[in-house]
Amino acid sequence: GENVEQHPSTLSVQEGDSAVIKCTYSDSASNYFPWYKQELGKRPQLIIDIRSNVGEKKDQRIAVTLNKTAKHFSLHITETQPEDSAVYFCAASRYRSGYSTLTFGKGTMLLVSP
Amino acid sequence: GAGVSQSPRYKVTKRGQDVALRCDPISGHVSLYWYRQALGQGPEFLTYFNYEAQQDKSGLPNDRFSAERPEGSISTLTIQRTEQRDSAMYRCASSLATGSRPSYEQYFGPGTRLTVT
């Protein structure tokens, strides 16, 4: 089955700095890669995703890149703000027959200091 | 509109008791997933429903776990003869996806925190 590794486990940055979280996956058939943000005590919220037919996707201050050859993908957050502090999870899945089961990484706790 | 809802939000039960956890997906979402999230970990897939059909139960850890979605909307995850190792957050997620209408995004519910004493 799929295996997703996520690094780092914790990341501390100053407000305004950039943050990068990296994930690798094992199943070359995986074709959908979402990122979720989970604030303390809250549900995971989908913040951005990428499909295997594109290499990069941006949405305001966040971007995701995908390298299918190397089987890794990354989340980039620019101009970080204290409200970006949360646990971020990457996931990988193979979309087939109308559904996809997500395999998650272990998460990265991002702390943005004012 | 209303998001995915789950009940109860917290459940404390004694070892050996049965529990039933409920999930109400986003209206119109035909795909429903159950995940289990241990503290400090990402969600782990348990089972998947397409309408009322349980199409994938490969993640259910053993036969004490079962799920149903009889009318293709609300789903119930049942754990029989609970054990302490079953303690976790149980989350469901829903998606618009069908075989003829791909939709990748999954939206999670607030979860049920299960504690087995």
Write the layout of secondary structure elements.
The complex is a heterodimer of chains A (114) and B (117).
Chain A: E1 4-7, E2 10-14, E3 19-25, E4 32-38, E5 45-51, E6 56-59, E7 62-67, E8 72-77, E9 86-92, E10 103-104, E11 108-113
Parallel strand pairs in A: 2-11
Antiparallel strand pairs in A: 1-3, 3-8, 4-5, 4-9, 6-7, 7-8, 9-10, 9-11
Chain B: E1 5-7, E2 10-13, E3 19-24, E4 31-37, E5 44-50, E6 53-56, E7 65-68, E8 75-79, E9 88-95, E10 107-108, E11 112-116
Parallel strand pairs in B: 2-11
Antiparallel strand pairs in B: 1-3, 3-8, 4-5, 4-9, 5-6, 7-8, 9-10, 9-11
Topology, number of strands of chain B: 11
Strand content of chain A: over 45%
Return the string of H and E elements of chain A: EEEEEEEEEEE
Q: Roughly how many Å apart are the termini of chain A?
A: 41 Å
Helix count of chain A, per DSSP? 0
Q: Which pair of chains has the greatest number of interface residues, and how are they split between the two chains?
A: A-B, 24 and 32 residues
> What's the multimeric state?
heterodimer
Shape designation of chain A? globular
Outline of chain B: globular
Strand content of chain B: over 45%
User: What percentage of residues of chain A falls in helices of 4 or more residues?
Assistant: under 10%
Q: What Rg of chain A is obtained from the alpha carbons, in whole angstroms?
A: 14 Å
Mean pLDDT of chain A: 94
Question: What this model shows, in words?
Answer:
The complex is a heterodimer of chains A (114) and B (117). By secondary structure, chain A is mainly β. Helix content of chain A is 0%, strand content 54%. Chain A has no helices and 11 strands. Chain A has strands spanning 4-7, 10-14, 19-25, 32-38, 45-51, 56-59, 62-67, 72-77, 86-92, 103-104, 108-113. In chain A, the strands form 2 sheets. In chain A, strands 2, 4, 5, 9, 10 and 11 form a 6-stranded mixed β-sheet that branches. Chain A has a 5-stranded antiparallel β-sheet with strand order 1-3-8-7-6, with no helix packed on it. Chain B has strands spanning 5-7, 10-13, 19-24, 31-37, 44-50, 53-56, 65-68, 75-79, 88-95, 107-108, 112-116. In chain B, the strands form 2 sheets. In chain B, strands 2, 4, 5, 6, 9, 10 and 11 form a 7-stranded mixed β-sheet that branches. A 4-stranded antiparallel β-sheet of chain B has the order 1-3-8-7, with no helix packed on it. Chain B is globular. The chains are: A mainly beta (114), B mainly beta (117). The A-B interface holds A 32, 34, 36, 42-46, 49, 51, 89, 91, 95, 97-107 and B 4, 31, 33, 35, 40-45, 48, 50, 55-56, 58-59, 91, 95, 97-102, 104-111.
